[in-house]
Design brief:
The chain is built from 19 helices and 8 strands. With 432 residues, it is α/β, with parallel strands linked by helices. α3 crosses α8, α11 packs parallel to α19 and α14 packs across α18. The longest helix is centred in the first third of the chain and has 18 residues.
Length: 432
Amino acid sequence: MELRFYYDVVCPYAYLASTRVERLAARCGATVRWRPILLGGLFREHNATQNPGAEMSAARARLNILDMHRWASLWGVPLQMPSSHPRRTVSAMRSLVAAPEELRPALSRALFQAYWVDGVDISDRQQLDAIVRAHGLDPQRVDSDEARAGLYATTAEAARAGAFGVPSYVVARGDGSTTLFWGQDRMHLVERALGRAEARSQLEPLEPLESLASTETIESVNPVGSSRDAIRVRFFHDFASPFSYLAQTSIDALAAAHGVTIERAPILLGGLFRAIGTADVPLHTFHAAKQAYVRRDIDDWAALRGVPLRFPSRFPIRTVLPLRVALAEPAVTPHIYRAIWVDDRPVDTPEALGPVLAEHGFDARALLERAQTPAIKQALRRNTEEAQAAGACGVPTVEVTSPGRPPALFWGQDRLEMAFAAVRGWRAEVDR
């Protein structure tokens, strides 16, 4: 099989992926084809903003920066944010298109190293030409019509494949079928698509965390005999989110394996979004290619975690009532999630939610009455405010607080394993 790796050196996540993509392919017996593209050109293909970071809420932008440094820490990869970012990479990407395919990986790594480790301004032609020349390529080829056309062609190729960002990967099979994946945090899904499904468990599918499994690495930070009872793990969630549902299906097993208790904190996601300046339904703001990918990604994660999922026919979902009921009785939480995200049942009215509660042995009338009390209503507002104060930008968000350390916040069901690495004692430098 062939693995097409689409990238632009301007992206830190593409840099992180570039450090592992060859080894991933080798494990699977696949061949990597390095396909340099122009990220800004890809954005234009989808009529997307040229600088997505500029449209992020402050909370999300902060978590984004933390996230890239955490991945670098987990993978043991050096990463330094350049003094000015983003820098123009048009010439750098043309140089990669101009390079013979057998030289492209080495030149790509050199440019990633220059941008993300050494602080070299590769938009400066003198700096770029020195790197290009050191890899046996005539710098004049960077400005050739062939290089210009080639970069345009690879960018258009990526767009046709469904790519809307980098790093993107296309798994190409012998029968002509292809599957697209996006993000350095989806490399385990790429590996499964390349035929190594047995390489990942449902609970800890993220490759970087395998390196943290050794007693030496973890116990050096969290010595044997230290109490996990003092570690607080708060799970901010809302039934409206499919990602919260996916997290709910795994978080209890992870908590049990790590000897901690989950403190569930239902929040009103719409209230959080309004407070931090995010659209009520972010999915609806995505362009068509990204929406399609996210919907499939949800299914991929459900399959990976081994849980059923059916996107509800009623979306977005009004969840004020079920959230209040979950505050009154946390044990109803998994049953409400299943009603929405597996059985496609409405839960937004007492008449709809009551039968769901009764079927699982709860006193539906008492819980629904309690959900309307001022104390429960205030608790939901307080949870939402506390999530905002903690720095949350969405759900699910897990907050890990250990004695003597500041809280560490992890956003997304695909960061659960990272959050529980923090429970085991790991912290990236940015979290210390």
